[in-house]
Structure formats: structure tokens, C-alpha cells
Specification:
The complex is a heterodimer of chains A (177) and B (397).
Chain A (H helix, E strand, L loop, with lengths): L6 E6 L2 H13 L5 E4 L5 H6 L7 H27 L12 H28 L22 E6 L7 H9 L5 E5 L2
Antiparallel strand pairs in A: 1-3, 1-4, 2-3
Chain B lengths: L11 H31 L1 H32 L2 H14 L2 H7 L1 H5 L1 H4 L9 H9 L3 H32 L1 H31 L11 H24 L5 H4 L2 H32 L6 H6 L4 H20 L2 H4 L2 H23 L13 H22 L11 H6 L4
Helix pairs in contact in B: 1-2, 1-17, 2-3, 2-9, 2-10, 2-16, 2-17, 3-10, 3-12, 3-17, 8-9, 9-10, 10-12, 10-16, 12-14, 14-16
The chains are: A alpha+beta (177), B mainly alpha (397).
Chain lengths: 177, 397
């Protein structure tokens, strides 16, 4: 069943209040929440437990794939398709492969970082409900927002709004879909 | 935070533990030195070579620590405040190392073939302008003069900072550190050329100095991490150190492993690709007669394994695991220096002597005892560092 709203959002005028509120709601058991701030706040990562994600694994896989690509590319070219004797060296001269292997490891790793980041963030995203809150544009200027989403099992429109109101929030509003 | 009320003096428990460590290291050191003394008479040439090997390794730990200390004074930052006191203590062992150079000075005729008369005209010219004992000693004297100068003033001002605040000392320490690091780069380059590369007076590699610069950084960082993990078991450092500090230091360790591998491979690739008769024998010598297995151990243990492990974030934040890897890298540094120093003399292939056990045991034992003695002398954190408050907040909510 789809809830009739996206969630409720609280507005704070300083980062400390936001971090404290986030910690408080997490302690109450809420999990489906996100914070929006004009600049990165390191403590939020800890409070929201955002350290564990799949990005490192994606980057590692991309890097390994890049390394294999680089190595095999050179192997097939110099050993199988165009075997040329250079200075009497063996055809499979691995030391000379290393640089390209290394470079492609970095390249694929970097590309998978960017693409993985976009994918995990769900970008590009032409529509997001939080912008339905008129004051939300201040999140890129000088206000700090915390949104508890309606999909959270503990979510209850009245009670969740009430909880946020007790946490030094300047304003609590409902977020329409 | 409790920055103002924290007492950074060593707890009695730590003091007792350090004394115990000092005693153990000292006894092992004396056993090693006794064995070395016997070796100096019964196997003279082997004695000098084993000694040089262990000595070059230890200089890497001390002078590398001095370099990290200067890095910290230049860049600031919370990660480096915690290594300041151990690094300063390691830098204060440089006078001991200067003294321990005496056997090498006496061993020049045995160690370095360039010290003997030659009919080779190329080597003869080198002997006139560079590779001769007096100039060799003058250069070594200059390295030590510079290192002692830096270590002396950085330690002196650091004590002054403890007494009368950062205003009196901070700018002096950071001002000396810039030129100091430049001097470090040059001195380590020439040190590598003189002490190690000239063991084979015909061979040269322009990469060689950088290899030792990276090696010193790696040795020192591994050592400092191991010391900090040990200190984290006792007050006051148990109150200071967080996973965040070790995460930062672990990242630097990983970067150092990579830069060492980068330099090592660059030198190998250039010489392998060039395949010139005056360059390639150095590698041929080191890839046969048993040495190829040592080389393989270095590739796997000095690069592949620590690199793969240190990629993990959780591992860098785990005190015990990080210390284990740091100690493992430190032992790999010994193997790497062994592979650099030894093969030119043992033409018959790899032959480990009993002196190769006595030399690191003796020198490292004595050195460690002296390091622990220095470490005990001052509070374990700089009391008035500009970044102290930030450091104490680091990794805490």
C-alpha cells in the first residue's frame, strides 16, 4: 500500500541541531531517513550509518576488470595476432605490459566510481518529492533538513511530526508525493 | 572534550612496561653485539656486509621518522600530532647511529671494491673525483651533520613549545622543515648512492635514491604505527587514539607501499627495457642462484599482500591488525635491503650467514632500547601543539 504522503520534513537552522535530531530519531528506531545540508557534515555519515555501501566493491570490480582488459589486450596483440620479435625478447614480455595494465586499472576504476556513484544515488533523477516543500530550496543556502520517509515501519503522520517538533526543529512540514 | 584536563605524562604502568621492553631489547642487543664481535674476528668480510645491511635499515627508521616529523610541521593536520613524540624520540637516536657508523668506516677496504687500486680506467676516474675513502667519509659526515642539526633543533623547539606555547616555537619548526625536507631528499639520495649503490662501482641507476626515500618513509611509518598501537594499550594514549587516527596513518602506509612499488618497478622496467651491458647485470645477479626467490618474496610480501590488505577500511581501523601488517612490512624492509646489499658479494648465490641474524639482532636491540629510553623522557603528546584540540576531537562525536 502506498502512503498518501512521501514523509515529513523538519527544518533546522544549524548543523548541530540537525545532527542531534538525526541521532535522536535513529535511536527511536527510524531507519528510512535522509538529511539535506548546504555543505558536507562529517558527523552525519556516522549518525546515519552511511559508511557501508556497495561503492568500494563496484570500484574494485571495475579496477580488476580494467587490469585484465589492459593485460589481455596487450597479450592478444603482441603474442597471438601480431607476434613481432623485438630485440630478441620473448613475445610474452610481461614487464612492458604493466604500465598499460596499471593505467587501465585506474581508468576503469575511476569510471566505475563515477557510474557507480550515480547508480547508487539513483541519478539522474528528474523528480524528487522533497522539492514539494516550498522552503526546501534553502537546503542549498543556510538551512538543514531532515526527512523521515513514510515507508519507514514506525512512520505515523501525527506521531512522527510530533517527535520532530520536539527536537529543536524550526518547522515541520508534510512532504507530498 | 577533555583536552585541558588530560595528563599526557606516561602512566606508571606504561613506564614499567617500557622499562621491561628496554631491558629485553637491551639484552637481545648485547647478545647480538657479542656475536657480532666474534664475527668481526672470524668472518671479517661477512661481518661488515651484515652490519651494513642492518645499519642501512635502522637509519631508514630513524631518519624516515625525522622526515615524517618535518612533514607534520609543514602540513599540520590531526593525523600527525599523535606521531610527533615517537618520531621525535626516533630522531633523537640519530647520534647513536652516527656512532654506529664507525665499523662501516673501518670496513671500507673490505666492503667497497672501489677502495682498492684498479687498472680499470673508468673506475680510476671515478676514484679520483668521487669514490675515494676521504670524500666518502666527508659526505657521510655531511649527512649526519644535517640530520643531527634538524633533529636537535626540532626537539629543542618542541620542548620549548611544551613550556611556553606554540607562538614561541611553531613558526620556527615549520620554517626549518621545508629546507629540512629538501636536505633529506638530497642526503638520502647520496646516502643510497654511497653506502649501497657503490657496492658495485660500475652500476648506476638514477632511480636508486628515490627507492631509499620511499623505503625510509615506509620503514618509519610502519614503525611509528606499531609504536602507537603499543602505546594505545596504556594511559594516556588510550584516551587519545581513535580508529580515525589509525585510519589516517593506514592510508599513508598504503600510499607508501604503492610509491615504493612504483619506484622499484620503474627502475626495473627501465633497466630491463634498455638491456644495456653496464646496467642489466645488477638484476641478473639478483634473479639467479636463489636470489630470485628473495625477489619473489619481496614482490609478494613487500607489495602485493600489504597492498591488497590495506585497501580495506575496516582493517585500517583495527589497531591490532594494522600493527601486525606494519610489523610485517618492517620485516619486508629488512628483506628488501638485504636483496639490495648482499648479492654483489656472494657471487655463488644466496648464502645466509649466522651473522645475518646477529647483525639485525644486535643493532636493532641496542637501537630499540635507546629509542624506548628517549620515548620515556617527554609527555606522549605535544602539550601546546596548534592542532592538539582538533586531534583530540578527531574521530569522536
Amino acid at each position: 500500500m502506498k502512503a498518501d504522503i512521501y514523509g515529513v520534513m523538519a527544518e533546522f537552522d544549524n548543523p548541530t541541531a540537525l545532527v542531534n535530531a538525526t541521532r535522536a530519531v535513529r535511536d527511536r528506531g527510524y531507519r528510512k531517513l535522509d538529511a539535506y545540508t548546504p555543505f558536507p557534515i562529517e558527523e552525519l555519515n556516522d549518525v546515519l550509518h552511511l559508511h557501508k555501501n556497495k561503492l568500494p566493491l563496484i570500484v574494485l570490480a571495475g579496477g580488476i576488470l580494467g587490469g585484465l582488459t589492459g593485460y589481455l589486450l596487450q597479450y592478444f596483440v603482441t603474442v597471438i595476432y601480431f607476434p613481432i620479435n623485438v630485440g630478441g625478447r620473448p613475445l610474452h614480455s610481461w614487464p612492458s605490459y604493466i604500465i598499460i595494465t596499471f593505467e587501465l586499472t585506474i581508468l576503469f576504476g575511476a569510471i566505475s566510481t563515477v557510474l557507480g556513484l550515480l547508480a547508487l544515488c539513483g541519478l539522474p533523477m528528474p523528480y524528487h518529492p522533497v522539492f514539494n516543500v516550498p522552503r526546501f530550496s534553502a537546503a542549498s543556502r543556510d538551512r538543514f533538513f531532515l526527512c523521515i520517509e513514510a515507508t519507514d515501519p514506525l512512520f505515523d503522520k501525527q506521531r512522527t511530526s510530533g517527535l520532530l517538533a520536539t527536537l529543536e526543529a524550526k518547522e515541520v512540514s508534510e512532504v507530498a508525493h | 572534550m577533555t583536552g585541558q584536563i588530560l595528563d599526557f605524562n606516561l602512566s606508571t604502568q606504561l613506564r614499567a612496561s617500557l622499562r621491561q621492553g628496554r631491558l629485553g631489547a637491551g639484552i637481545l642487543g648485547l647478545v647480538g653485539v657479542a656475536a657480532l664481535t666474534v664475527g668481526a674476528f672470524v668472518a671479517r668480510d661477512q661481518f661488515f656486509r651484515s652490519y651494513l645491511w642492518a645499519y642501512v635499515f635502522l637509519v631508514g627508521v630513524s631518519v624516515g621518522s625525522l622526515a615524517w616529523l618535518m612533514c607534520q610541521h609543514l602540513t599540520g593536520g590531526a593525523w600527525g600530532v599523535v606521531i610527533r613524540r615517537p618520531a621525535e624520540a626516533a630522531a633523537r637516536t640519530i647520534p647513536l647511529l652516527a656512532l654506529l657508523f664507525v665499523p662501516i668506516a673501518l670496513g671500507i677496504p673490505s666492503l667497497y671494491t672501489w677502495s682498492q687500486p684498479t687498472t680499470d680506467t673508468v673506475l680510476e676516474i671515478k676514484q679520483i673525483y668521487y669514490l675515494n675513502a676521504p670524500f666518502f667519509l666527508v659526505r657521510t659526515g655531511a649527512f649526519f651533520a644535517g640530520w643531527l642539526f634538524l633533529s636537535w633543533f626540532l626537539n629543542r623547539w618542541s620542548a620549548k613549545e611544551d613550556r611556553s606555547g606554540p607562538v614561541a616555537a611553531h613558526s620556527k619548526m615549520s620554517r626549518i622543515s621545508g629546507p629540512g625536507l629538501i636536505f633529506w631528499g638530497f642526503s638520502v639520495t647520496f646516502m643510497a648512492i654511497d653506502w649501497v649503490m657503490s657496492l658495485n662501482p660500475h652500476w648506476y641507476s638514477t632511480m636508486f635514491g628515490l627507492l631509499f626515500i620511499a623505503g625510509q618513509g615506509l620503514s618509519a611509518m610502519s614503525f611509528l604505527i606499531a609504536v602507537l598501537v603499543f602505546l594505545s594499550n596504556f594511559r594516556p594514549m588510550s584516551e587519545v587514539l581513535t580508529a580515525r587516527h589509525f585510519h589516517d596513518l593506514g592510508k599513508l602506509l598504503l600510499a607508501n607501499v604503492m610509491i615504493w612499488a612504483y619506484f622499484s618497478f620503474s627502475q626495473f622496467l627501465i633497466i630491463w627495457a634498455g638491456n644495456l651491458p653496464q646496467e642489466i647485470p645488477w638484476y641478473i645477479e639478483r634473479l639467479k642462484g636463489g636470489w630470485q626467490y628473495v625477489a619473489l618474496i619481496i614482490v609478494l610480501g613487500h607489495f602485493a599482500l600489504p597492498f591488497a590488505l590495506l585497501l580495506s577500511r575496516d582493517l585500517k581501523r583495527n589497531f591490532k591488525l594494522l600493527a601486525t601488517i606494519a610489523l610485517f612490512i618492517l620485516s619486508m624492509r629488512l628483506v628488501d635491503v638485504y636483496w639490495q646489499v648482499m648479492p654483489d658479494a656472494s657471487k655463488g648465490g644466496l648464502a645466509v650467514s649466522w651473522l645475518d641474524l646477529a647483525a639485525p639482532l644486535g643493532l636493532a636491540g641496542i637501537w630499540l632500547a635507546s629509542f624506548l629510553m628517549q620515548l620515556e623522557k617527554r609527555p606522549l603528546m605535544p602539550l601546546n601543539d596548534m592542532h592538539l584540540a582538533e586531534t583530540l576531537e578527531h574521530g569522536r562525536e
